Amino acid sequence: xxxxxxxxxxxxxxxxxxxxxxxxxxxxxxxxxxxxxxxxxxxxxxxxxxxxxxxxxxxxxxxxxxxxxxxxxxxxxxxxxxxxxxxxxxxxxxxxxxxxxxxxxxxxxxxxxxxxxxxxxxxxxxxxxxxxxxxxxxxxxxxxxxxxxxxxxxxxxxxxxxxxxxxxxxxxxxxxxxxxxxxxxxxxxxxxxxxx
Length: 196
What we know:
This protein is an alpha+beta fold.
């Protein structure tokens, strides 16, 4: 299900209310922002996510360094830097405000001083809503993803949303659940006092 947003302008408070109710924004080809609440919903089961041997080997061989929240806006811009993107300047501004408020987070993959991969999303209670990921070097995005999933487990997160299942998220381990099940898991996650 998707609905086109009407003004008011996209801003941090509106995003928080939307995520708390299971909705998230995406820009469509017409340039307008639509709100999505898919059924089924795609999630990652945190207790099943583990970095594979080949990814771990590549992490060591490439000499990647991983950080949290070091350059959130740059990660988001890198995720938007593709021929077809659902991330607009308005969204970048609103999510950057969320990041400044401690609600949106990024994991960065570095090769020396160069940002080569990353992932960002929104944290509410014990729920993390994964938004987008990028790689400029093979394996850099996956390294950020598995680093993030390990961090979420360690912090006590219980829900890792990935919105839609596609060939890439499926490869990472995404499964689909009914919207009603997602809403129940979200309600439970929001009641837990977990911090990123």
